[in-house]
């Protein structure tokens, strides 16, 4: 019933019809290698299917051709990953941490001082003084700080010893009979000065009182700030500049000696947070100065007028439109009203629509009250009588016409005589 198919062909017998298709010409459906897992993308890459193939793309935080991907160390760049203290690289990402005495700011990069004195007075027996990145305990008059740097000991007036108020040690006093009675030491992070009494702060203690960077010098720590931050007048604190997220300002940011200053454009007001701008609803105050309607918009407002009025150039005042001043506003008579107008028609006409006057066909209504014939005219009508009759003086009725004799004289009028029965 059909021809045979030979090598490399497929014979399909459907409804008594043999169809041969060459194997090499049969189109195959696209295979999604990504879904089947037959791709060779790196474990840290994303597989993107394409017609007849696929692409390998390294995930964010990784670099490579997709077949090979390696972690990007964000902490190795010149900006320390944007971290002001320590940057810790993690696979595909990084995180910022702060030195002791600091906490991470909401932006995840800056470090803010922790006020240890707010928590149980910092553990100080008497006075706690917060400093940038640390704190210190102090004693009231008549007491000196003990070696644990938290408790206070009452001073003694007997001899030169650590109980004597004149021992002169800035931090720690040690009894040293063989060295003149006392010797001074400093707390960790401080160095003993040349006078062997005072203690000089170093960057090892509370980051030297610096919020961002600290460098030890012969005169003590020198503070610095990371890029896009500025050193405050206290030479320790770093303040944000407009270069960092626009200073947190909604709109306009200006750098000042004390930090960023935010401002808002016309139509907006600065909120108590000093950063956010809120639209002013001008319509709430005296209707925005509008005569009729006021519509608030973002940063501004718009005045509009009631129907039949127009907005003047001051964009607030509404003036009545005199429609009667327009050409052909009405067919006959135009009467202007505030916000509108009215058309009136002459006698014999009727108003249709708003402005047009049409003739009234009086003859169509009870024959115009004519006794015989009625002829309509523009704005009026007239009655007519049949031959032999003439129109009465009332313009409606018909009366017998006056007949003339052959000599041209009118025929004598009929005379009626009335008798009383």
From TrEMBL:
GO molecular function per UniProt: calcium ion binding
Location (main, coarse): secreted
Listed InterPro entries: cEGF, EGF, EGF-like_Ca-bd_dom, EGF-type_Asp/Asn_hydroxyl_site, EGF_Ca-bd_CS, Growth_fac_rcpt_cys_sf, NELL2-like_EGF, NOTCH1_EGF-like
Top-level taxon of the source organism: Eukaryota
Entries under SUPFAM superfamilies matching the protein: Growth factor receptor domain (SSF57184)
UniProt keyword Phosphoprotein, yes or no: no
Cystine residue pairs: 324-334
CDD domains, A to Z: EGF_CA
Keywords of this entry: Calcium, Developmental protein, Disulfide bond, EGF-like domain, Glycoprotein, Repeat, Secreted, Signal
UniProt domain EGF-like: residue ranges: 30-70, 320-358
Subcellular location(s) of the protein: Secreted
Name of the molecule in the record: Signal peptide, CUB and EGF-like domain-containing protein 2
Gene this protein is translated from: CT573393.1
């Amino acid at each position: 019933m059909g021809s045979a198919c030979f090598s490399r062909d497929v014979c399909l017998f459907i409804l008594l019809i043999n169809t041969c298709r060459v194997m090499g010409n049969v189109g195959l459906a696209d295979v999604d290698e990504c879904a089947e897992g037959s791709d060779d993308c790196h474990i840290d890459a994303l597989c993107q299917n394409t017609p007849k193939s696929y692409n390998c793309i390294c995930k964010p935080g990784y670099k490579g051709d997709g077949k090979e991907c390696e972690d990007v160390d964000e902490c190795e760049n010149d900006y320390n990953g944007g971290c002001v203290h320590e940057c810790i690289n993690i696979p595909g990402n990084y995180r910022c941490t702060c030195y002791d005495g600091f906490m991470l700011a909401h932006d995840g990069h800056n470090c803010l001082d922790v006020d240890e004195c707010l928590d149980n007075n910092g553990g100080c027996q008497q006075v706690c003084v917060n400093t940038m990145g640390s704190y210190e305990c102090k004693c009231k008059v008549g007491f000196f700080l003990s070696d644990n740097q938290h408790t206070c000991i009452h001073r003694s007036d007997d001899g030169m010893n650590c109980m004597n108020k004149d021992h002169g040690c800035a931090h720690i006093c040690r009894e040293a009979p063989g060295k003149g009675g006392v010797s001074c030491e400093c707390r960790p992070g401080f160095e003993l000065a040349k006078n062997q009494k005072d203690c000089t702060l170093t960057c090892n203690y509370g980051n030297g009182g610096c919020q961002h960077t600290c460098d030890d010098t012969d005169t003590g720590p020198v503070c610095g700030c990371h890029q896009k931050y500025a050193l405050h007048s206290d030479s320790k604190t770093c303040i944000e500049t407009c270069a960092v997220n626009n200073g947190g300002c909604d709109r306009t940011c200006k750098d000042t000696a004390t930090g960023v200053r935010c401002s808002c454009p016309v139509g907006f007001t600065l909120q108590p947070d000093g950063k956010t701008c809120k639209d002013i609803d001008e319509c709430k105050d005296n209707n925005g100065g509008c005569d009729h309607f006021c519509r608030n918009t973002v940063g501004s407002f718009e005045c509009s007028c009631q129907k039949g009025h127009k907005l003047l150039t001051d964009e607030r005042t509404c003036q009545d439109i005199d429609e009667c001043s327009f050409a052909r506003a009405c067919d006959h008579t135009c009467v202007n009203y505030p916000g509108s107008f009215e058309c009136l028609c002459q006698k014999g006409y009727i108003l249709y629509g708003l402005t047009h006057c049409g003739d009234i066909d009086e003859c169509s209504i009870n024959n115009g009250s004519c006794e015989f014939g009625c002829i309509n005219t523009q704005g009026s009508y007239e009655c007519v009588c049949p031959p032999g009759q003439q129109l009465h003086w009332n313009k409606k009725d018909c009366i017998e016409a006056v007949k003339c004799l052959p000599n041209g004289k009118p025929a004598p009028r009929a005379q009626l005589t009335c008798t009383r029965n």
